[in-house]
Amino acid sequence: MAQAENKETVGPAARMVAAVAKRMRLRKGLTQEQLGTRMGYTGAAISAMERLVHPVSDEMMVKLEEELGDRTGIFEEMRELVRLEKLPEQFRGYAPIEQKAVALCLYASHVVHGLFQTEAYARALIAGGHPEPTPERTEELVVGRIARKTLFDRKPVCEIELILDESVLRRPIGSEEIMREQLAYLAECARKSNVNLQVLPVDAGLEGHYAGDRGNLEIVETAAHDHVSYLEMQRESLLITDRAKVSSHRQQYAKIRAQALDPRRSLGVIEELAGVQR
């Protein structure tokens, strides 16, 4: 029954990988056991991948390219498609836009933004979600989330601005150790030349207006230099292209930025909470 359920949920990209891998394996005259030995897997694992019992993993995609790709890059190209279809459904339409962005302006009010999460923080957050994912699905989602970090080092450079509500920094996820590691990683990210990281202090509302009261907000400058905004809540998402609405979101973001601490003071807050000694 479990095998049948797995086959029904496998996406078209993973199905294509299984079909191409089997065809290229047979063309090379390799048995499943022989290919598995070359790749560091069992023959049973190759069989499970080809029969869609266990959809191809990101690590297996790398090995398939090495052993069957013949320098064509075919499995590397399909790897991106497989990653995409393993992402949460509500995020799939936005993920390619994020990865091709010229600039990102992000505000996170509850947890660390996905682009800035450590693997341990992401795993704790995802595993504790509702409905609770299986261990296999948890790992798929963690891999997909961490893979987004290629954006930090992409050429041409993407300028990334993140404003974190201070409560995010004080809300431990997973364990105290995981949170310290996450805070230290945020401090490391803040020092990247294409990253601007600011903290919206918990007492910002004392000024009479709390600009971050409407929750998370993401504004993207696309490769065509248009602007879109992205909202996500309770496993639902909304991509907004209407210029008037996006303009309103940009103004709201500007208000949040105006209430945030400057980057230097923000880094100081993060380092203090992480226990980093200057």
Multimerization state? single chain
Distance between the termini: 57 Å
Radius of gyration, in Å, reads: 21 Å
| Strand-residue proportion | 5-15%
Overall morphology: elongated
State the order of secondary-structure elements, H for helix, E for strand: HHHHHHHEHHEHHEEEEHH
Order of strands, main sheet, comes to 3-2-1-4-5-6
Q: Give the integer mean of the pLDDT values.
A: 91
Largest sheet: 6 strands, mixed
In DSSP terms (H or I, runs of 4 or more residues), the helix count works out at 13
Look at the helices and sheets and give the structural class. alpha/beta
Low-confidence stretches: 1-5
Tell me the helix content.
40-55%
Description of the molecule:
The protein has 278 residues and is an alpha/beta fold. Helix content is 50%, strand content 13%. The protein is built from 13 helices and 6 strands. It has helices at residues 2-9, 12-27, 32-39, 43-50, 58-68, 74-86, 95-99, 119-127, 135-147, 166-170, 176-190, 243-259, 263-274; strands at residues 103-108, 159-165, 195-200, 217-221, 227-233, 236-240. Strands 3-2-1-4-5-6 form a 6-stranded mixed sheet, sandwiched between helices. Helix 2 (12-27) packs antiparallel against helix 6 (74-86), helix 3 (32-39) crosses helix 4 and helix 11 (176-190) runs antiparallel to helix 13. The chain is elongated.
